[in-house]
Amino acid sequence: MTVQVAPLTGDALHAALDDLAALRIAVFAAYPYLYAGSEDYERKYLAEFTASPDAVLVAARDGERIVGAATASPLAAQDDYIREPFERCGIDQAHLFYFGESVLLPEYRGQGIGHAFFDQREAAGRSWGASHTAFCAVVRPQDHPARPADYLPLDAFWTRRGYAPVPGLTGTFQWQEHGESEESGKPMQYWMRAL
Asked: pTM for this one?
């Protein structure tokens, strides 16, 4: 693998915010997210996410080009709409590390970079003192009209990593997808594992 995967911090992180914003928009535009985002929103989101002193942003670089990124932080540092499902289900948040997203350009997939993203975020969670890690994924119907014929869900990859969907641990995220005139709620399923 010629791609280097390592955390971005300090000045290097701030210098990469524009590239990271463009990367998120490019990857999330595809199915299953179909996200119609703006670079201004993305820069603001990334700046807020990484403001937590315990947040980590792992970048995959091919030379100087950022081709992928993954984020994580303590769940307590997340917005209310992310924490609410855990509160509703009575899940202790004090030792839970939350994975915000993992985005990678299609031509770099299948090279072990996704595993490296999980390895580094899980290591950051352990260093912080997490007992569990969690993330969520959008739920789309099997017959969604935008679903590509060759689409492969990541469920098997996540399961091999030790994650499982938690029954009842679901939420709703708001975003505008391509073809929509405004934001709408999207159902999200949370997955967890013990460290």
From this structure: 0.93
